[in-house]
Structure formats: C-alpha cells, structure tokens
Amino acid sequence: MKNNKRHSKISASVRKEELLKALQEMGDSMYEKLDKGVFPEVVFPSRSVRNIVYDEKLLQYVLGDSRVKRSSQNIKHIRPFTQLVWLAFFANQLVRQGKTSTLRDVYYSAQAYNIDFKDQPESDDIITDLEATLCRAREDFSIYPEERSAIFGDLTIEYTVKGYEGRKLNLDSHPDGYLIGPSLSSAELVETSAEMVIAVEKGGLFSRFVEEKVHEKYKAIIIDTAGQPPRSTRYMLKRLNRELSLPVYILTDGDVYGEHIAMVIVSGSANAAHLRDLTVPTAKWIGVWGSDITKYKLPSDPMNEQAIKRIYELRKDPRYRKGIWQKELEVFLKLKRKSELEAFAKYGLTAIVDKYLPEKLEYAKSL
Amino acid sequence: MKNNKRHSKISASVRKEELLKALQEMGDSMYEKLDKGVFPEVVFPSRSVRNIVYDEKLLQYVLGDSRVKRSSQNIKHIRPFTQLVWLAFFANQLVRQGKTSTLRDVYYSAQAYNIDFKDQPESDDIITDLEATLCRAREDFSIYPEERSAIFGDLTIEYTVKGYEGRKLNLDSHPDGYLIGPSLSSAELVETSAEMVIAVEKGGLFSRFVEEKVHEKYKAIIIDTAGQPPRSTRYMLKRLNRELSLPVYILTDGDVYGEHIAMVIVSGSANAAHLRDLTVPTAKWIGVWGSDITKYKLPSDPMNEQAIKRIYELRKDPRYRKGIWQKELEVFLKLKRKSELEAFAKYGLTAIVDKYLPEKLEYAKSL
Amino acid sequence: MSKKQVSFSEISPSEFFYRNRDLAGFSNPSRSLYSAMRELVENSLDACEMAGILPDIFIRITPLDSDESKQDPKPYVLRVQDNGPGIDPKNLSYAFGRVFYGSKFKLRQARGMFGMGGTMSILYGQITTNRPVKLMSAIGDGKAVQIQMMIDIRKNAPIVMDKQVVPAEGISGTSVEVTMEGDYFRAASKIQEYLRQTAVITPYANLVFIDALGRQFFYERVTKEMPVPPDETLPHPYGIDVEALRRLLQDSEEATLLKFMQQNFHRVGENTARRFLEFSGFNANMNPKSMETLQAVSLVEALHKYDNFLKPDASCLSPIGKDILKKGIEKELKPEFIAISVRPPSAYSGFPFIVEVGIAYGGKVLPQGLSLLRFANRIPLLYDEGSDISFKILDQDIDWRHYKVRTEAPLGVITHVCSTKVPYKTVGKEYLADRPEIERELKNALRDALRQLQTYLSRQGSMAAVQRKIGIYSKYLPLIAQFVTDLSGAKNLPKYQQLLDSDSDGEDKTAEPIDPVGKPPSDEPPAVKAPAAKKKTTKPKAKTTAATKKKKDAPPVETIKVEEKKKAQVEKKEVKQDEKQQTTFEDFG
Amino acid sequence: MSKKQVSFSEISPSEFFYRNRDLAGFSNPSRSLYSAMRELVENSLDACEMAGILPDIFIRITPLDSDESKQDPKPYVLRVQDNGPGIDPKNLSYAFGRVFYGSKFKLRQARGMFGMGGTMSILYGQITTNRPVKLMSAIGDGKAVQIQMMIDIRKNAPIVMDKQVVPAEGISGTSVEVTMEGDYFRAASKIQEYLRQTAVITPYANLVFIDALGRQFFYERVTKEMPVPPDETLPHPYGIDVEALRRLLQDSEEATLLKFMQQNFHRVGENTARRFLEFSGFNANMNPKSMETLQAVSLVEALHKYDNFLKPDASCLSPIGKDILKKGIEKELKPEFIAISVRPPSAYSGFPFIVEVGIAYGGKVLPQGLSLLRFANRIPLLYDEGSDISFKILDQDIDWRHYKVRTEAPLGVITHVCSTKVPYKTVGKEYLADRPEIERELKNALRDALRQLQTYLSRQGSMAAVQRKIGIYSKYLPLIAQFVTDLSGAKNLPKYQQLLDSDSDGEDKTAEPIDPVGKPPSDEPPAVKAPAAKKKTTKPKAKTTAATKKKKDAPPVETIKVEEKKKAQVEKKEVKQDEKQQTTFEDFG
Predict the structure, then answer these.
(1) When comparing pLDDT for D362 and D548, which is higher?
(2) Burial call C527-560: b when 16+ CB within 10 Å, e when fewer
(3) Confidence band (pLDDT; 50, 70, 90) for B141?
(4) Do the Cβ atoms of D1 and C264 come within 8 Å?
(5) Which residues of A touch B346 (CB under 8 A)?
(6) What confidence tens digit (pLDDT) does each residue in C492-508 have?
(7) Which residues on B lie below 8 Å from D589 (Cβ)?
(8) Smallest Cα–Cα separation from A340: which of C589, B107, B149, C526?
(9) A163 Rama sector, left if φ>0, alpha if ψ -120 to 50, beta otherwise
(10) What Å distances lie between residue B260 and B227, B283, C518, CA to CA?
C-alpha cells in the first residue's frame, strides 16, 4: 500500500486563504475607485479563440497574453461587470460559510440581489469570467456542476467537508459506485492498494468492471466518467495520478468523440484553457481504437456527417499531431465507422474484461 | 431504530427459484411442440393502449384481460418470437451465473447468437414482452437500465451480490450519495433511524439537502430520482415504504412534468402496467405546486405548448381525478407558468430547507 | 412616326402581334426558336393526321453563318418538312402570311388553336432578319409549288416575291424554311425534351431532327396504328352563348325552330329538339330569323338549364388510344410496367373532352421519384408544371401510400387531355386551367391506373413473400430450437426440421397482430434486406407488353422455385460468414 | 356552321378575342367583372391625365334584376363615368366597337397598352347578355352625344342602334354603361383592393364606387398636384428592329440619311447622326428610300452596336413624383415614416423607364410583416405577386438585417415602374418580366429607400440610448457599490453617486469589446425592455412629412430630457416592486 503524504490538505487551506485574499483585494481596489468617483473596471485574460494556444511543454491549451478590460463605464459592459462583482461577493460568502452551490443555484440566487441573468448559460459564462479573473477553478469557490460521475475501488479517503471532517471511507464498500461530488472532490486521499486507475466512458462498463472484479484482478480504481468527464472528475484523476502516483488508463467508445474524451483527460479542453491542474499528461488512451474495430471484428455503425466533420477539425488540432492520436484519427477517417464499448458483449459479457482489457493494458506499455 | 424483519431475503431466493422454474417450463413446452412438428407460440397480456386500465383498488394502471398470441408460424411474428426465446435463454444464463447486464449489453449480446435487433428500442421492447410473459420485472432477470439515481441517509444495508454477500454498509457515510445500482437494489434493508423518505427530482437539491443536513434535521433518507425515477429507484422507494414502513414525500419541479414524476411514484406508469411492486400509493407529493408559484412569488417561466397539451391529456387520466392532483393541474393550467426547485435560491440557498420544506411537510399531514 | 397630335388609329392583327409578340411565346431569341420549331412541327403533325398519313417530319436548325465562332443569339435557318397532304397553292401564301387566317377555326380537336403559330414564326423571322420565308407545297398532283414571301405587317397580308412550280418527283407535303434570330445554346434542352415527349405521344411518327451542331436525333416510328382523325362537329347546346346563337339564327336557312335545333346543334335530333322547345316554351314552328334579341337571351338561358341533352360524342375527338399510348411509353421510357387508363368522353361547358393516363414504373430510363409528362391535344406541355391541374392532383389529391408506391420509386405519369377546346391559361399553351369536370376525369383515370400498378406491385410482392417465408423459417427455427433446448435442459435438439418441409401455406393467419405499447417490434425481418439487394438481377423484368403478358399466363411456381434455390444459397452463405466471424474472435482470445 | 369540308377561313380580331377571351382576362364571371371595371377605370384615368384634368371617377355596379335573392353569377350593370375631355363623336363608336382601334398605339406611357380593354368589356357584355352598351361623351362644346351600340364581331365593327345629341349641361367626359354577366360576390374583394391601391398611386383623383350591395366607397383627393402628362416620343435607336426601320424608310420624306436619322429617332441630333453614320459606314447623303433590304439589316445591327447614342429622356414618361407618391401613401397607409426614392430615367431595349419606390413603416393600417404594392404605369398589379420581379428582389436580394428591419416590422413597399412599354408577361397585366435593367433600378431604389428607413430607425434608437444610459447607471452602480463594500469589508458605501451626476458622454469607448469563448454575455441590458414596452406612448410620431421635418430641426436634447425623467420614474418603480417581493417572502418565513 502506498501512503499519501497528505500535502493536499495543507495546500487546500492555503488555497482557501489565498482565494479570500484575492477577493478582498478585488473589493478594496473597486471600493477605492468608486469612492474617488472613478468607474471601476476589471481586467482578465481573453478567452477568445484567437487567444487560446497550445502549450507544448504543459501539453495542454493555455490562454495567451491578450487581455480583456471590462469597464463599468461602458454601457455595454456594466451589466456583465455588475454580475461579475456580485458573483465575487457570492463566492466570498459560499467559501466563508463552507457551503456549496450548483451552477443552477447561482443562476437563481442572483435574483435575490436584483441581478438578472437572462438564462443559465449567461450565468455560467460569468462564472468562467471570474475563474479567469482570479485564475481559480469554480470548484474553489464551491460551485459545482450537476453532472455526476462515479468511482469504485480500494481507496481510503478522509472528508474535509463540514460535519464529516476527519471521517474516513473506503471506496470499495459500495459496488454500485460512489458519486464524485463536492465532498469527495474536497476529500484527502489517504491510502490505496491500487496500482492503476481505469477510467471508462460509461456506467454500463463501470458496473461490468465492478462485477467482474477488475478492481481486484488488475488492482485498479475504476472511474465512470459518464461521457465527457466533468471537471471535478478530471481533478480527481489528476490527484490520483499526482498524489498517489497511479498511472491512468482510459477506455472510451470507439469513435472520434471517445478519442476526444480521452484527449481532454490527457491535455485539457480549450474551454478550460484558463485553468491548470485538470490534465493528466501521462494518462493513456487504450481503446476502443479505430483499429480495434477491424481487429476484433466489432459490430459497428457508420459515422454520421457531423462525426466525420469532427475528425477533420481534430486533425488540425496540435494535440492530435502525433502518436496513437493521429494514427487512430486516420483509421476512423478511413473506416467511417464506430463501435461502442458494449459491442464486445457480442463475444460474451466478460470478453472485454477477460480478453480485451489485458491485451490493451499490455499494449499500453509501448505507448 | 426500527428493525427490518428480513423477509425480503427469503422472498428473493424464492422469487429466483420461481423465475428459473417458469423459464424451464417455457422451454419444455416449446421443445415438446417443436419435437411434435407443431409451431410453438407464446401468449401474454396485450400491452396495447386499449388494454391498459386503471385499477381503482390497486391505485395503479394494470393490464386488462386482452391477450396477444405470438406464433412462430406467422411470418410476421417469427422474428420477435425468436428474439423472445433467445432473451429467455439469455436471462436464464444471467440468473444462474449471478451476473447483471445493462439494456445496452442485451442489445449487443444478441449478436453472438445471430439474433439481430434493429436497434436498442427493439431489444428493449422484447425485454418488456418477456416481463409481460413471465409477469416479472427485468431487474429479476438481472437486466438494469443505465440511469442512475442516488440515495443518502442513515440506512444500513446488507449486500446479496456475489462477492459482497453479508457485507453491510451505512448509507450516510458518503455525503455525495450512493448510486442505486444492481447491488443496492438487491441488498437487504437492515436498519434505519430515519422516519421518512424525501425523494427529490434533482441532483442539485439532493446535494443541498445533504449539505443542509436534512437527513438529520428531519430524520430522513434522501433520494435523488434524477428526473423520472428508473424502476430500480421506484422499487427502492416501495421497499423503504413497505419493509421499513417509512412514509415517502416527493419534491419535484413546479410543472406538469414534475407533478407526473410524483404520480408515477405513487401510482406507476402505463408503460409498466404489466408489473406490480413499483408503486407507493401512500407517498405524498408536497411540491412544488402550481399554487406555490404564486404563494411564494417564485421566479417562473411560461410553459410551452407541449406542456400545456400535456396538462389537457393528464386531466383525462383517472389518476388525476381528485385531490391535490386535480387541483394543482388546474392551477398550472390557469397560470401557464412553471418554477424549478432551485428557484427558491432567490431567497437564499437554505430557504428551501429552512422554510419551505417544514411548511410543506406540516401541510402534508392534511393530504 | 414623326411628332403628331394625340389621335385614334387602327392597327392590323399582325401589327398587334408584332408589337406584343411576347404574348404568343416569342419573347426572346431562345424562347422564339423553340416556339417557332414547335408551331411548325405541330402544324405538320396536324396536317398528316387529318389526312390519315403516317407522319415523317424532318426538322433542321442551321446557323445562317458558317462561322461557328459567332455567339448566340445569332441568325438560324429553321426548316420543318412533312409528308402531309400539302396546302392548296391558292391558300399557301395566306395560310402563312395572314394572322387569323387558317384551317383551325373549327370545332374539332387539333394541336393548333389560335391559328397563328406559323404566321408568327415567319413574322418573327422577318422582323429579326428581314429575310423572306421559303415555302414549298406539293399536294400530290405531281407538281410542287415553291414560293418566297414576306408579310406586309400593316396590311396583314403576304407579299409573294418569287413563285416557281417544279415537278414534285413523288414528294408530297409542306416545307417551311424561315430565317430568324435564335439562341440554340439556351433552347437546345427544351427543344430536345419537346421532341422526346412528342415521340411518346405520337409513336406512329418518324421524327428526324438535325440540330445546330449537326447532331442527328431520330425518334423512330414503332407502330403504324394511328388514332382515328376527328370529325368536325356542331356546337353542343351547353357551350353556346348569346352571340353564337345570334349568328346561327342569322345564318339559318331552316324554316322552323324545330329544324333549326336539329341542324345546328350537336346530338340534337327531332325528339330532343321537340322536348326542349316544349320545356323552354318556344313555338316549334317559329321562323328562326324572326327571333328577337331578348328571346335569344332567354333561349340561351333555357339551353343551359335543360338537363336532357345528350352528352357530346367523341367523334370530333381523336384520343391516342390504349395501344398507341402504350407503345409510345414503351419506346421512350422503357419501363418495367405500364398501366393505361382511358376515360369515356365527357364535356365541360359543352366542349367534349377525353382524358387518357399512362403510368410507367421502373426500368432504367425513369429517374427516381415522380416524372410528370403532360399533353393536351397531343402537345407536350413543358413550362409551368407547378400551375397545372395534373400536377395539383398528383401533389395534393393522391394518397400514394394507399397505392403502396414509395416516393422514391421511379414513376412516370403521362396525362393526355384532348378536347375541341383545351382550356389553356396562356397563348403560350403551357398549362391547363382547373376545370372541375377535367379534374374529376383526371383523378378517375389516375386512380384507375394506380390501382393497376398496385396490383402489379403486390403480385411482385407476394411472389417475393413466398420465397421469403421459406428463407425466414430456415433462419429462425434452428435458433428457436437451440435456445429452447438449452432452456428445457434437453440433450438433443427437437425434430423441428419437419416444419421446414411442411406446406408453407399453412401459415396461421388467425394469430392476432402484435400490438405492444409504443413502437411495435419491426414487422420486417432483416433477412429481406439481402434478397432486396439482389433484386436487380433476379426479379423478372417486364420490359415489353408482350413479355408481361406471357409472364401472367405462365405458372408462377416455376419461376419461384428457381428463386428459392438462389435464396437458400444466399442464406447459407450469410450464416457461414457469421460463424466465421465468431470463430475468429475465439481464436484471438 | 353546318357540316362542311376542311378548308381555310379568316376570322376578325374581335372574333379571335371573342373565341379566346380568357387571354384578355375575361375567363369567368368574377374575373370578367373585375377586368371590365379596371379596363374602363384605366381608360378614364388615362383620358383625364392626358388632358391635365384632375380626375373624378364614378364607378357603379348594380344588379340588373332588382330581385336580390338571385344568386351569382347574374347580370350586372357596370357604369364608369369620368370628367375627362370626352371622345370626339366621330371616333366614339369605333373606339369602343373595334378591336385594334384606339389611342394607345403610341410610344408614350399610358395605362392601356393593348388598346382593347374597353372593347373587350363591351364584347363580353354583349355575348353574355346581348344588350347594347350605352355610351355618353361630352367634349366640352356644350353638347353630349349618347349612343347605344353593339359590336358586329365578325366584321370587327360597331353597330350603332341609337344616337342622340343632348345639351351637356356643363358636363364633360365619357361614360360607359355595360350590362354583363358577373359574380360580384367573388369579385368584391379584388375590386375594392384595386381601388384602394389606385387611390395610393393617384391621390389627386376622386374615386367614388357604389357597389352591388349599395355601399359607397369614397377615395378622396388629397392633392391637386398631378404628374406632368407624357409627350409622345420617337423610337430610340436601341429599340428598333428591321421591320420598324423598313417602315420608317418607306414613310420617310427626308432627302438624306443624315436628316432621316435626326427626324425619326429619339435624341438623335445632327452631331450624333453624323458620328453614327461614320461609325456604321453609311453615306450620310444617301436617299433613305433607296436603301436595300440587306443594307437595312446591317443598319439595324449598327444601331444596336453603337455605344454613343444618348439615353432616352423621360419626356414621354409620367412618373408620379416624390410628393404625390408620398401623399398617396400617407392617405391610404397612414404610416409612422415614409421614404421615397425616385430613380433617374433609364432604358431597356430602347424603351425608357423610371422606377419609383416608397417605403412605409409603422402606423396602424399596415399589418405586421411585409406588404408589397406593385404598380406599373400607375396600374395596381394584384395577381401573381410571387412571379413578379419586385417580389423576387425583396425576397432574395435584400439583406434585411443590414437595414436593421425586423421581419415582423409593419412595412409597406410600394414599387412603381413606368415605361413606354411595360414588359408584362401576360395580356392580363399581372406581373413584370425580369429585365436586368429594371431589376437593377428597382434594387437601387429599394436600397436607397431602406437606407432612409435605417437612418430613421437608428435615430429613434440613439435617442432611446441616451435615456437608457442614465437608467442603466442608476440601476447598476448602487449594486456594484453594495457588493464591493461587502467584499472589502468597509462599513459605509463608497461615494459612487458622483458618477451618476457626471457627464454621461464621457463614456470610455476605448474599452475592448467583450469577446469570451462561446456565447458572449448579452450586450443588451434587460432594462431596455421596460422603455421598449412604453415605446408606443413616448416615441415621437412622424405621421406627416411636415412633422418629420420639424423634428429634425428642433434640438434633440429638449426632447430627451423629458424622456429621461419619465424613464427614471419607471426605474424607481421597478426597483421598489422587487424589494417588495423579497419582503413578502421574509414575512412568510
């Protein structure tokens, strides 16, 4: 069993203090301006497509140097400016009171303060603006999305959420899996006997893996990303990799969207170019590859127009310029067909665990 | 603390034996016919809309007396007939080997046997046919959907799934909630200190309730139905109600779809008219009602055409002919507006727990 | 034309159409070339048919300048020659040189209606190139008359510039050679489509077309049967107006109204006339010439009200007829199946008409979806399809699912309306107005033809169904046996084979239909997909009527057995493939 | 009309149109009543305008039988009377009794073009009721001529049955009273729409219409300004064809080609003629009469090729003009804003034309969305809108977003094309063919008028913007102050009020635009919604031209300040409401 050095707990409280300080400074500077009769403004990195660049060292997308100024004097800016200030105020309260909030809650909470968001996408956008302004993920302000992915395996955690502080739980105790929510995200990772993490795209496979005892047979922690993994899940993968030094393997459906799910785990998404700590550059995508469709004669369906268009887009993406990423993209383009993970059920329910997984894990060593 | 009398464990094994016997009998009778040179056939209750009737005693929809004969001699029947026989064979294997399967797995597994389903809805349909033939829910054949709802609260369960037999878990140990999957569905309910079950429609509210300690303040088990609850969740609600005698309260979004989610928990759905054990006739829908929108001045949106059409449909439904069901349907029709549970965030994140919930629970006594 | 005071003036008919030539389809060089060609071709076809001569029509469009680099629009020489009866030399110059002078002003079906197509072509040539038209006519008396002439537009009269009589050398007929500005580049596709459709409707004609690029198009005669030429007819009482009656009265030589009725109206005999006069309260012995205006008005009213006149007969009409239409369709559309429906004569506003409809299905010529070929008095109608009554019926009134015709099926619909007066909406003769009587007949004819197609398709379908059933049983029964054996725990498979040998017609048709909630399981086994793909090579073709008839008479079982074997082979092959696939995976494990 | 041998025969022009009356818009009782009414009204308007008389037109449609229970179609008496110059008694019977006889066969803009509308109306009346037409004409010599006549259709000539000369009693003008079968029930809406649109385009006319139900419709004169009547013109060189040239040559009295060119062509003076003849290589002294056919052909070719002829001038055209058009639109559409664009004269194929376009926006008469009113030579075009060139441009070529016009905005577009020859596609005068030259001018005019509308709309918008800004600052700054105070932990609010008093024009326009990933935050603050809803009462109306002009001159700030105060009040009220709502909930807890 590996022991985690618990440095994340310390870092968590440090991070919290830093955040509160940044919010205070933001408030101070604006207060001063208003008091002097000057329109306050806020400056943050531009999230325009032109300002998103691929960082070859970090192996992820980051924001460039272009910055955006939002001024309360500009009639077109004052509304989002006010929304941003309110959100800072709201986040400050959440963090100080130890409460969490969903994205939807934020949208409705604003109404108590005469802040009117047109719809939830608008409030989501302002949340991202605040992330960019403070260079912190929304989870740091205790704002979580509703998406839910799950985890299972021999991993002992220690909660830090209010009312559970210090309580421990081993994540192999409930075979239907544990939701990765705010309390799990903020928990310390104490101990594990696992030697790897296997992330699968789908709940069905997750259940199958638990049932077939992949966690025991392969000493693995199993994560259901529930499609494109939410940030809290990517953050968990990152922590499992960094704090517990576990290698991460990714299994997705055999199509361009599956490949991209894996890529986002490895290199992050353009949408979160303003954030770090969400990527696992050493994670390996082990399937389902386009070449697996032919190799294993999997039942497959033709890709639709949109998927093929997506391949052409991704081919231009710098992250896809080499290795398996590029190779399999070309295979998908040639086949123009896709297969799901469940397609292995054609060979019996356990075939994917008994035959496919070991073969691909073996192969992964060479990646 | 109440103690559960553990009768379900015994009934579970009895039910399993009964199922296996029914499958065997089905096989025997068909074998005999084939051997005699007679085309085998299968007869089951018709699930045609005309054969779905509302049972005023059971307070749920049930199938009437009309039956359907599917014959292997009829060229139009032979394909679904073969699929049905294959599914019986497949279910027999699952149950004997103690494995579970998702609906998707079934679709793909068929291919190993040259059984071709056009798409998953087709295989789902055949699964429902087998349910109707054997009068058993698909969960009894170890076939589960992928939807995931969650549970949290002081409830000790004992697993019956392979590898976990006899292990216990208390469902208040992970504040992000436990997925209600095959292992939880099949677990024994051992013990609880809870005095009620509160089912909420949405993950956001579920998290809020856990965070605000609704489980402690109200001695409640909290269930996230994740929209229209999957059958496993309705089955869980039924068991909590029957085996532990816990009253069930339901909170949904304030619109006609929310009201119907509550109704399905109470009286079942027309789609599952061939099954019992999925309804909680004593469950109470406590909000959000149409009248709450006005009473609490909730932020609201206009209903769309489709929702209004849905109201007109439901007004004709016998289940909606009385009490709060009818009253609130009329209010929705008058207002033509809807509100979400999160709308209470307008009055602060805790308003729904501190103010709304106690008031409605109090009110529920009179329902 | 120098500056003058406002005043009144008169113009001649040719002057009018010269000024407003757009109205007659001569709006621009491309449309004008097309219009001139079709007007002359239609004149030729009318002439041949009226004389009972199998038409040989020769059409040529040649650039006037041999310099090919000259761009359109440019002068072309259009020549149309026929083997008809020719035109009497004394009428020749006026027939082509005077607007409103012609042989078409009769109550009789003809392609031409306005009687000015030929003259307009010549007039257009004259105003664009100022060259005389060259006419030749041989009426079978051994001589051919050749004239060159122009038109004095203001006088509406021909100016003959040259006239020669030469030996006919066995040739009979008329030829017209007009020089006109045209745009063949733009007109080519319409001209070719016009001739192709003309070939469908007149399969008894030879059409030779040499186009401006020297290419030869030959639409060959496939039958010597010709429609019976129409008789001229008297007006039907329902079609008469006050003006027309007044004229008849003026011209009448009959002593009594009773005689007058009999002599001047279509299908009015002594009994009918007597009963009508009684109904209308007119004295049967009244002298027609003595009738006063107000009396004439009330006589017309009575004519329109009286219910017991006989319907017009079809002697003045010349429908194509089932056989000829079928030959035309076979020839040009080469379909897999043809249905023809010919309606009995009917009438609107006193004008008799007949509707004929053909349905062509399948084959390699027809594109996917619906192609509509519209004809009126044997003229193809190419423009403004969307406004036509036939289009409206097909688009809005026919329930295609009822006839089991898929939307993407290659289907040709040919409609032909012939009448002494076709209700065109424009002088350009492009589409029919929606008269309810014509609409009703078209619907009946279309439905009749579609029913024939439906019968054909379902016969095709049921032949395929028997093959399919054998295939399906041998696909599914082994599977059922396998699973049932496993379920029952038996060691050996049951003896299900016997079911495959039993009479397949013993199908249990009493079984209730499957009617589950929501989507019912698909009724169509995917096994059908394989034979469907093979359809092109195995399905019997019915390219010609003769072949179709033979197929009907022959015992269908013969054919089926061959099909069965093929089918079975296909099935086997497929099963094997699947097995192989599974084995491969086992190997890999 | 008794049975005869096939033969050639001639018919008269009126005979032709009698047989093919559909072609001229007389296809059924409803359409015929409408066509007769408009043909006679258009004749009357043409007559008045040509003589420079402000038109007073009286139209009446009365059932012939007083028995009201008789169902349509039935005989009606249509009477159209004008105060024009009258028709010389010697022309009166021929003007209405002979097809192809009239005053419209000139190169000059007029409503009538085919010169047979009046005659066709009478002819239709005659064949349906056989009653004579009653004509009255007074030419201002104190006498009025009244005649009753019918038409001898075969001879294409009038038959005068009664003629009386009575004292005119101060009356001048023409009246026509024709009895014809009609269907007023079906025709009513088209007839009324026709008169309403006519009132838009001729606001200088009084139109009184008494309909078959006795209702009176009065379209009143709102201006005494009239368009200048058009001159007759000579043909433009580009519009000439070989036939036309040949006639000019035949009729020429000039001794030399140089003179001939000057005397017979539009805008060809001595210099132009000389330069052209040099260009074309013709001898300027050549006798025109001596020109041979082939020479004429090449002269026409040269005329079409030569680039330096002057464009046709507009003296032969009579556009409505900005002011009159504006008055017509104001009167009938009562919009909030009008833009007019009149294009300079242009020409197609040698025919001069002018395009005028009006845009009407807002008001209570116009429905939501686009209404298109099409006119050609002041005739409303009511049928076949979808085929018209104006419709095509509006539908396909105009980028409405560019002009900031919302699709649901109440917008009227009035297009008027006047020309010596309007390129109609049918005799029915329903829609214009798409000539590229006309299309170009229509586009230019439409774009110009839409730019004017855009300017108006954005001026309306910017006035609203200043009000808005004050409102927005006072809405958001207090909120910002509140949150910032909480964040910084200060006890009192900062002194942000000073920002509300500062000059609002000091806005920081240098700030970079917001450009986040995905959807940018909405630029439009919802505060706009409140004033937008109030728009109807606060926004200045521009009902008349005069009013609009005044507004432009007045200093805009004055207006705005008033608006500001109103706005501020609205804001306050809204904030209060929200506070109240929150309090309510606190109470309930």
Answers:
(1) D362
(2) beeebeeeeeeebeebeebeebeeeeeeeeeeeb
(3) confident
(4) yes
(5) 108-109, 111-112
(6) 889 888 887 654 444 44
(7) 351, 354-355
(8) B107
(9) left
(10) 10, 13, 19
Distance CA D42, CA D201 (A): 12
Phi, psi of C90, deg, nearest 5: -70, -20
CB contact under 8 A, B118 and C526: yes
Report the alpha-carbon distance of residue D535 to residue C463 in Å, rounded. Answer: 73
- Enter the CATH code of domain A150-156+176-182+191-364: 3.40.1360.10
User: What are the residue boundaries of the structural domains of chain A, listed by start?
Assistant: 12-144, 150-156+176-182+191-364
Give exposure, A233-246, as e/b (b: 16+ Cβ within 10 Å). Answer: bbbbbbbbbebbeb
Report the predicted TM-score, pTM, of the whole model to 2 decimal places.
0.53
- List all residues 6 or more positions away from D183 whose beta carbon is below 8 Å from its beta carbon: D28, D29, D30, D33, D72, D73
> In this complex, which chains have at least 3 CB pairs below 8 Å with chain A?
B, C, D
- Cβ atoms D359, D413 nearer than 8 A: yes
Non-local CB neighbours of D427 within 8 Å, separated by 6+ positions: C20, C23, D23, D24, D25, D114
How far apart are alpha carbons D40 and D84 in whole angstroms?
13
Q: Classify each residue of A304-331 as buried b or exposed e, where b means 16 or more C-beta atoms within 10 Å of its C-beta.
A: eeebeebbeebeebebbeeebbeebbeb
**Average pLDDT taken over every residue of chain B:** 86
Q: Is the pLDDT of residue C405 over 50?
A: yes
C187 phi, psi to nearest 5 deg:
-85, -15
D121 closest CA partner among D224, D200, D21: D21
Tokens of A117: 């968001």
Asked if the model's pLDDT at residue C585 lies above 50, the reply is: no
- Which two structure tokens, joined as six digits, stand for C276? 């009508």
In the predicted structure, residue D545 carries a pLDDT above the cut 60: no
* Residue B46 in contact with partner chain C when CB distance is under 8 A: yes
Name the class of domain B12-144: mainly alpha
Per-residue pLDDT, C278: 92
In this complex, do A184 and B204 lie within 8 Å of one another by their Cβ atoms? no
Q: Which of D148, D103, D107, D94 is nearest to D125 (CA)?
A: D148
Cα–Cα distance for residue pair B75/B41, rounded to 1 Å: 12
The DSSP secondary-structure symbol of A264 reads: H
Q: What is the overall mean pLDDT for chain C? A: 78
State the angle between helix axes of C556-588 and C529-538 in degrees (0 to 180), rounded to the nearest 10: 130
* Strand pairing class (B178-179; B220-224): unpaired
Greatest CA span in chain B, whole angstroms? Answer: 74
Q: Percentage of chain C surpassing pLDDT 90?
A: 31
Answer yes or no: are the C-beta atoms of C87 and C143 closer than 8 Å.
no
User: Residue D178's beta-bridge partner residues?
Assistant: D78
User: Does residue C545 have a pLDDT over 70?
Assistant: no
Percent of the residues in chain A that have a pLDDT greater than 90, as a whole number = 34
Using DSSP bridges, classify how beta strands D370-376 and D411-419 pair: parallel, antiparallel or unpaired: parallel
Distance between start and end Cα atoms, chain B: 26
- Closest approach of D524 to chain B, Cα-based (Å): 20
Which element (helix H / strand E) includes B357? helix B357-364
For residue C301, the tally of other CB atoms under 10 A from its CB is 12
Q: Which of A295, A297, A351 sits opposite C581 (nearest CB)?
A: A297
Phi, psi of B186 (to 5 degrees): -95, 5
Chain D residues within 8 A of C12 when measuring between CB atoms: 100
pLDDT over 50 (residue C562): no
- For residue D203, the one-letter residue type is P
On the question of pLDDT at D527 being above 50, the answer is no
Q: Is A116 helix (H, G, I), strand (E, B) or coil?
A: coil
Distance CA C367, CA C193 (A): 15
Q: Give the C-alpha separation, D218 to D221, whole Å.
A: 9
| Rounded distance between C-alpha atoms, residue B94 and residue B86, angstroms | 12
Question: CB atoms < 10 A from the CB of C280, how many?
Answer: 15
**Summary mean pLDDT of chain A:** 86
